[in-house]
Amino acid sequence: MSKTVFANCVAAVGLSLAEVAKILGQSLSMVQKKSQGQRAMTQADADALSVLWHRIRQEDVQGLPEGAVSMSHALRVLRGAAGVDAPRRGRPIRVAEPVVDEEDDAEE
After folding, report:
1. Phi, psi of 14 (to 5 degrees)
2. Domain ranges (residues) in the chain
3. What's this model's pTM, rounded to 2 decimal places?
4. Smallest Cα–Cα separation from 4: which of 28, 50, 35?
5. CA-to-CA separations, 51 to 13, 14, 24, 28, in angstroms, rounded
6. Per residue in 12-54, pLDDT tens?
């Protein structure tokens, strides 16, 4: 069974149904029904989720739930603008320091 547009929008902002219900000012039951396709998504729902998604995309996540902050970081990773913060096993990877030619520095 495929997800509803509403469920996909909720997934895109990285929030739980309870968090979305609070943001939309709706009951959890109503949001669950919209997610399952038992109730129709409204244009007001789409507008509110769109504003939220654009804030997440622009990294304007102050005051948003942790899921939105996490989604913002995930989007940065997908854009190639951030690395993955993952613990590594074994020794840390060493990156060589850039070699600076002191003679070139003296000439400048």
Report:
1. 75, 20
2. 5-84
3. 0.68
4. 35
5. 10, 14, 12, 20
6. 999 999 999 999 999 999 999 999 999 999 999 999 999 999 9
